[in-house]
Amino acid sequence: MTDNPLLTPDLVVFARWVVPVVPTQTVLENYALFVTDGRITHLLPANDAKTMLSEAALAGATQLNNHALLPGLVNAHGHAAMTLLRGVGDDMPLQAWLEERIWPLEGELADASFVNAGVRLAAAEMILSGTTCFADNYFFPEETAKVTLETKLRVQLACPVLDFPTRWASHADEYINKTTALHDQYRQDDRVHVAFGPHSPYSVSDAPLRKIATLAAELDLPVHMHVHETQTEVDDAEVKDGVRPLARLHALGLLTPRLFCTHMTALTQEEIELVASSGSHIAHCPESNLKLASGFCEVQKLARHGINVALGTDGCASNNDLDMFSEMRTAAQLGKAVAQDATAVPANAALAMATINGAKAMGLDADIGSLEVGKFADLCAVDLGSINSIPLYDVISQLVYSTQASQVSHVWSGGEALLCDRKLQTIDEQQLKRTTQEWQKRVKHVAEKA
Ligand SMILES: [Zn+2]
Questions:
Q1: 162 alpha carbon – ligand 1 mean position (Å)
Q2: Which of 341, 337, 418, 354 is nearest to 21 (CA)?
Q3: 400-420, pLDDT tens digit by residue?
């Protein structure tokens, strides 16, 4: 008989394996996790858990007898609304793809209703593949925030800033003002985190970048930006500005631990050392880089310099999916090929890139990115009983090298169920398919006119 009263947490999950990510390379067998008020309160051996729970809590517990429970995946870079443009312009070079295909379509279509529908489609795909938090850089971020709250995901809204007008704003100051207004609106929110999202060094001039550097420091907000995506971008900037983009950002005061650079395929040794000493983070998007032939991010070299490298899918128009399991596998394989070293980017490093590293880069690692007591219960369960997962010698290897997204069985965010036995809990799948069909017709119509 124990003196302690029996517990009735809001959620109890028993899992065959728990992969907490922190500490690294850890697999806990036959463990349980308790959640109350959205946060993890206990992570302990299943046998100990059973002695602490009330009869009702035990009866209501989720039993995952053949599954690995891991942190919800963190997609560190993307443009969720572009999911509506999946497959509309493939096998084109980056500049032609942008100028002849994507920008004309966006100019005609990318309004608030496009963003609402595209983000909802992205949310469904992300939940079905185990992602619970995503960084997003797109117009009408207020719509992205709304859909994120409705579907109970978590987002870093990297609100766009550009020199030129779009349907969302007409000049750089208006983009910046809309960003700070959104930050005011959501500053107390656990699910919506606002950041500055200046598109790239070549599309934002010095004055707005200087203003962003000042405001980001004052408000302690991240700055999320495409930087050194291709060698051509760097070469063009050297001709136009007389200086490489990273050096220009440094001179403008942007290279700080708040800066989150996406791509970074063309870096010199000095630039790697500069990024390392500044504490800035990198979002690596291997499948998008491969598809657009953008170049290669030297992940192993960056990691050896102590740079935090996170993982993202980029938008669906250049990937063409939001599957972080395949992205982990590609990151591990490409990292080895680029380093010409089969020990580069091992499975546990790829898993960290897809979880805790993304959380760190967004400044959210106190709350998400690993399964630790006190953090939000953002969880993803993977059924490892399928044919492609047996025999099973190493759970982390299996998760990175042979798991398919369709093996994700359950997802929770802040302890709330988003996916149960592959069924979406916060999105009406039939309605979503109908809405997407309607958008497909509209996009096709505009694409054929172009
Ligand atoms: Zn991007």
A1: 14
A2: 354
A3: 999 999 999 999 999 999 999
- Beta carbons within 8 Å of 173's beta carbon, 6+ residues apart: 208, 211
Q: Which residue has the tokens 């809001």?
A: 10
CA 18 to chain centre: 21
Mind giving me the DSSP string for 437-449?
HHHHHHHHHHHHH
Whether the CB-CB separation of 119 and 149 falls below 8 Å is answered with no
Distance (Å, whole) CA 158 – CA 246: 19
- The answer to whether the pTM exceeds 0.85 is yes
CA nearest to 123, candidates 94, 152, 97:
152
Say how many Å lie between the CA of residue 262 and the centre of ligand 1.
7
**How many A from CA of 392 to the centre of ligand 1?**
36
The residues near 214 (Cβ < 8 Å, ≥ 6 apart) are 253
Give 102 Cα–ligand 1 centroid separation in angstroms. Answer: 12
* 8 Å CB contact between 376 and 59: no
Domains, the chain, ordered by start:
11-71+379-413 (2.30.40.10), 73-361 (3.20.20.140)
Whose CA is closest to 92, among 282, 298, 292?
Answer: 292
Give the Å distance between the CA of 3 and the centre of ligand 1: 56
Q: Is the peptide bond before 346 cis (omega within 30 degrees of 0)?
A: no
What is the CA(330)–ligand 1 centre distance, in A?
17
Task: For residue 78, report the distance from its CA to the centre of ligand 1, in Å.
Answer: 5
> What's the CA-to-centroid distance between 27 and ligand 1, angstroms?
33
Burial 192-203 (b: 16+ CB within 10 A, else e): bbbbbbbbbbbe
pLDDT tens digits along 286-314: 999 999 999 999 999 999 999 999 999 99
